[in-house]
Design brief:
alpha+beta, hpI Integrase, Chain A, two-stranded antiparallel ribbon, 20 helices, about 50% helix
Length: about 450
């Protein structure tokens, strides 16, 4: 069976599989008769059987959440777990078609096919391991698949390799799984750590969040009636407790960096501090969005209020309706950011990447993820000793965003601008003030961002 590039002319979506026998035509398609991707609905897969100007649809039990996910499924190899499962179902219906035609001397009817399929096949997958594997295989982002696979590996170990039906995953079982995780070792020994270190709280929460996501999808697919309670087992973790530093500490890093000569700024420690300050000055940007920045016509130092701009990758992937966020966010190039750009950015040329070294020669999404991971790892590794010497907590690139937000908030900058500056609007107040943001002058935005290098005043009683 091969992938088909032919297109369903009515809905312009490609056919995933195709076959015919004795004048009966079969196609595995996204069944968009009732559900639509463009309305944000999950669309079921179905085998469409056409015969004598009539059609029957046989749902496979699998759904797709977007046309992008469906197209990824269409182009996947037959060895991919979820595609193999659908191929098995497709071939089963094809075998039934052949059997009816051969046994009844060609007297085939769609009603007879429906009866025979109903007798001998149940497409629903209730096996938790298989369902989890299929869900993981369908994820587009490499890191998401790795997270799902790692969590499933732990769940398999917990079950001693014995699978369990989805409806049997109860709150009581999740509690036992949580207690089991508390006793497990990380298996990863980092420099300076003792071997056999217990799983961190963050890792345990990531595993439980993956399990909850699997069960949420199972409910959406109609495989379970309700998702078990997780609230007694979910905790914040260390990652989000103190992931911001004060402006005073930012200024310590800035003073350290500016005290270095050109050679020192290109050293491992100098680059780590400079790169972190760059992320902070770029509205708390993450590394992947930093890598996507391009020089614009108004980025030149000759402009009164030079700027860069970005669309946050997380929002871009979500493809949310217009009105949920402001698409393009402006980054004022404040004096400190200009100094950092002069040291680490490419020469100014409109349309050229600002930081071509981050992605390097990477072309595929997987390769780009690896490059960004290495970029973040080098910052975290090389900035740690500097933080110790300056008597501030150790930081990672992920601290830049919350430190930027914290600095503006302590200066009393309105929430609508802060939300806008980091690439999203979440609060009702921000939505109401979106018109204000659109009319905010370049001068005002420049003034707001310059506050991130100014110690906030002490509130008066």
């Amino acid at each position: 069976m091969s992938n088909e590039s032919s297109v369903n002319s009515a809905k312009r979506l490609p056919v995933a599989m195709k076959a015919d026998f004795g004048g009966v035509f079969l196609s595995l398609i996204a069944d968009v008769r009732h559900a639509k991707f463009e309305r944000g609905e999950d669309v079921p897969l179905a085998v469409r059987v056409s015969y004598d100007k009539d059609k029957k649809y046989f749902r496979t039990g699998m759904k797709m959440s977007s046309s992008k996910e469906y197209l990824s499924f269409v182009s996947a190899r037959d060895s991919r777990p979820d595609r193999k499962e659908q191929l098995d179902y497709f071939n089963m219906i094809l075998d039934v078609v052949k059997s009816i035609i051969l046994s009844s001397k060609g007297r085939f009817t769609l009603e007879r096919l429906q009866e025979e399929v109903a007798k001998g096949f149940k497409p629903v997958v209730n096996d938790t391991f298989t369902y989890w594997e299929n869900l993981s295989a369908g994820k587009e982002k490499v890191k998401t698949r790795q997270m799902y696979d790692m969590a499933l590996k732990r769940f398999r170990e917990f079950r001693n390799g014995s699978t369990i039906q989805l409806p049997d995953v109860t709150t009581d079982l999740i509690g036992k799984f949580d207690k089991w995780l508390m006793k497990q070792k990380s298996g990863v020994v980092r420099k300076g750590e003792k071997p056999n270190k217990p799983l961190s709280l963050d890792t345990r929460m990531m595993i439980l969040r993956a399990l909850r996501a699997v069960l949420n999808q199972a409910k959406k697919d109609g495989l379970i009636d309700a998702v078990p309670e997780f609230k007694d087992f979910m905790h914040t973790g260390n990652r989000r407790r103190t992931n911001a530093i004060s402006v005073e500490d930012v200024l310590k890093l800035w003073d350290y960096w500016t005290s270095l000569d050109s050679r020192g700024k290109q050293s491992a420690k100098g680059r780590a501090v400079g790169r972190w300050l760059m992320l902070y000055s770029l509205n708390g940007l993450n590394a992947i969005d930093m890598a996507k920045l391009v020089w614009q016509g108004n980025s030149s130092a000759d402009e009164d209020y030079p700027q860069l701009s970005f669309i946050r990758s997380k929002i871009d992937r979500a493809n949310k309706p217009v009105g949920k966020q402001l698409d393009v966010t402006i980054i004022p190039i404040i004096p400190q950011l200009r100094q950092l750009l002069n040291e680490y950015a490419s020469p100014f040329k409109a349309g050229a990447p600002v930081f071509p070294d981050i992605f390097g020669n990477a072309v595929t999404d997987e390769a780009k993820v690896i490059r960004v991971h290495d970029f973040n790892r080098r910052i975290s590794k090389n900035i740690a000793e500097v933080c110790d010497s300056l008597d501030i907590q150790r930081i990672t690139p992920q601290y830049a965003r919350n430190s930027f937000i914290s600095a503006l908030a302590h200066h009393g900058v309105m929430t609508s601008y802060i939300d806008y500056a980091v690439g999203h609007t979440t609060s009702e107040v921000s939505a109401l003030l979106a018109g204000y943001i659109n009319n905010l002058s370049d001068e005002a935005m420049q003034a707001y961002n310059e506050k991130i290098f100014i110690i906030p005043p002490i509130p008066q009683n």
